[in-house]
């Protein structure tokens, strides 16, 4: 079965998703693309060599196209809710870029709609589909590093000041929605949706004409003397490293924890006189991608997400096990709380 895609939005992330689909060849077909600017849609189609795709100059026409199996929503944050609900009402499955919604109420409404329609709805946390993340799940499930006590992660790019979609409230801007959510999905991956949170401590600052969150340090305290320390920034370059620290060892992701290819597993032996055992594991890209074809680094890794969605569709599921609806709800719940602490 070929999965037939309709692409909403002609921005950089939509372009990278299209280039990833092209790497997969068999099994995926780009049937249509849509945007609100005729010139931009035509230019986008030419740029990505979409000779056979239908071109639509409004979103509703693409959503109503009966030739589609699934709609990819790659538009700005503030449009996600309306477009996802419209697509689900039209009987289309949806892969929506993160953040799927701008509040817990929005995300819950979208998930409830998908369930009522028995349609797949997937939040586009591409991180969850990388082989490294699957390894981490297995290591945590097997108690390889014992009880997890502390996690640390950071992520930052000096991009907020000169990126319109991040600096304007009307577009659903702010860095919590853009990269802070990656830190929170990592927290949920490790500690789960039922993590017994005792307190959330947030320190940060806002910037720009709309006074949106730029940078923040987040400490989440959990029962059992456990905690997460998370740091994001839209004005400083951070290494995007992550650690999962347990009573028997540690998992280190040295860079790009949100799209990782490598990690190290350190296991502490039971005898203190024996040195820790360190294994370095690498998962090189599964496809031969030309980096020049992509705007963002490592976004050829979107192939994992596309294949995950295809698998869920063929199996008749309404979510991917890599990132469930309950996990999306937990992430937006945490985002709501953190943003409330920043904005007051």
Concise account of the structure shown:
The chain is α/β, with parallel strands linked by helices and 344 residues long. It has helices at 12-24, 38-47, 59-63, 80-89, 104-117, 131-141, 164-167, 175-191, 302-314, 325-343, and strands at residues 3-8, 28-34, 54-56, 70-73, 93-97, 121-124, 148-156, 197-207, 212-222, 226-233, 242-246, 249-253, 262-267, 277-282.
Description of the molecule:
The structure is a single chain. With 344 residues, the chain is an alpha/beta fold. It has helices at 12-24, 38-47, 59-63, 80-89, 104-117, 131-141, 164-167, 175-191, 302-314, 325-343, and strands spanning 3-8, 28-34, 54-56, 70-73, 93-97, 121-124, 148-156, 197-207, 212-222, 226-233, 242-246, 249-253, 262-267, 277-282. The protein contains ten helices and 14 strands. Helix 2 links the parallel strand 2 and strand 3 (54-56). The longest helix has 19 residues, at 325-343. The radius of gyration is 20 Å and the shape is globular. Residues 4-125 form the Gfo/Idh/MocA-like oxidoreductase N-terminal domain. One of its GO terms (molecular function) is nucleotide binding. It catalyses: (1R,2R)-1,2-dihydrobenzene-1,2-diol + NADP(+) = catechol + NADPH + H(+); D-xylose + NADP(+) = D-xylono-1,5-lactone + NADPH + H(+).
Any chance you could write out the topology, listing elements then pairs?
Blueprint: E1 3-8, H1 12-24, E2 28-34, H2 38-47, E3 54-56, H3 59-63, E4 70-73, H4 80-89, E5 93-97, H5 104-117, E6 121-124, H6 131-141, E7 148-156, H7 164-167, H8 175-191, E8 197-207, E9 212-222, E10 226-233, E11 242-246, E12 249-253, E13 262-267, E14 277-282, H9 302-314, H10 325-343
Parallel strand pairs: 1-2, 1-4, 2-3, 4-5, 5-6, 7-10
Antiparallel strand pairs: 7-11, 8-9, 9-10, 11-12, 12-13, 13-14
């Amino acid at each position: 079965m070929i999965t037939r895609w309709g692409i909403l939005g002609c921005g950089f992330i939509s372009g990278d998703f299209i280039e990833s689909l092209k790497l997969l060849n068999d099994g995926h077909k780009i049937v249509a693309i849509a945007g609100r600017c005729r010139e931009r849609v035509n230019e986008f189609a030419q740029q990505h060599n979409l000779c056979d795709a239908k071109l639509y100059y409004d979103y509703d026409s693409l959503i109503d196209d009966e030739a589609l199996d699934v709609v990819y929503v790659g538009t700005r944050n503030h449009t996600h809710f309306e477009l996802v609900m419209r697509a689900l009402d039209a009987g289309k499955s949806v892969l929506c870029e993160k953040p799927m919604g701008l509040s817990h109420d929005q995300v819950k409404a979208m998930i409830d709609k998908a369930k009522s329609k028995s349609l797949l709805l997937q939040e586009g946390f591409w991180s969850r589909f990388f082989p490294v993340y699957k390894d981490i799940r297995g290591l945590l499930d097997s108690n390889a590093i014992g009880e997890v006590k502390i996690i640390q992660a950071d992520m930052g790019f000096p991009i907020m000041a000169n990126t319109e979609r991040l600096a304007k409230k009307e577009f659903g801007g702010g860095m919590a929605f853009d990269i802070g959510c990656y830190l929170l999905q990592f927290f949920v991956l490790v500690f789960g949706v039922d993590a017994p949170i005792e307190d959330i401590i947030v320190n940060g600052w806002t910037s720009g004409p709309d006074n949106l969150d730029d940078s923040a340090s987040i400490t989440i305290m959990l029962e059992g003397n456990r905690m997460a320390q998370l740091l994001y920034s839209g004005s400083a370059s951070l290494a995007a490293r992550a650690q999962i620290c347990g009573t028997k060892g540690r998992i280190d992701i040295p860079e790009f924890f949100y799209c990782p290819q490598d990690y190290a597993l350190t296991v502490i032996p039971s005898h203190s006189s024996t040195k820790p055992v360190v294994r370095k594991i690498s998962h090189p890209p599964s496809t031969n991608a030309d980096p020049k074809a992509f705007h963002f680094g490592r976004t050829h890794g979107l192939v994992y997400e596309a294949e995950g969605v295809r698998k869920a569709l063929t199996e008749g599921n309404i979510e991917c096990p890599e990132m469930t609806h309950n996990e999306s709800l937990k992430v937006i719940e945490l985002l709501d709380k953190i943003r409330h602490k920043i904005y007051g």
